[in-house]
Amino acid sequence: MPLKQTIPNYSEWIYDWGQSQEIEIFPLTPDRFASGKSYGTSWVLLRFLKNSEEKIQYRIQKFYSKWRKRILY
Fold this sequence. Notes:
Largest sheet: 2 strands, antiparallel
Number of helices: 3
Strand content: 15-25%
Strand order of the largest sheet: 1-2
Number of domains: 1
Low-confidence stretches: none
């Protein structure tokens, strides 16, 4: 799927956006999204910043869905 746009400073962007979603993320491949390539793993989920009653799998799926909607068409 094509990106909406390239993402300059991807490492900072994904870290900051993850924080806004209450998730700590470690960016792996900042060059891929900065250059407009939409393939490959780009981050690793380190931890959730707040406790929740929701199951971990649901929280990950919800975050991943939001992330895809934010960067892909």
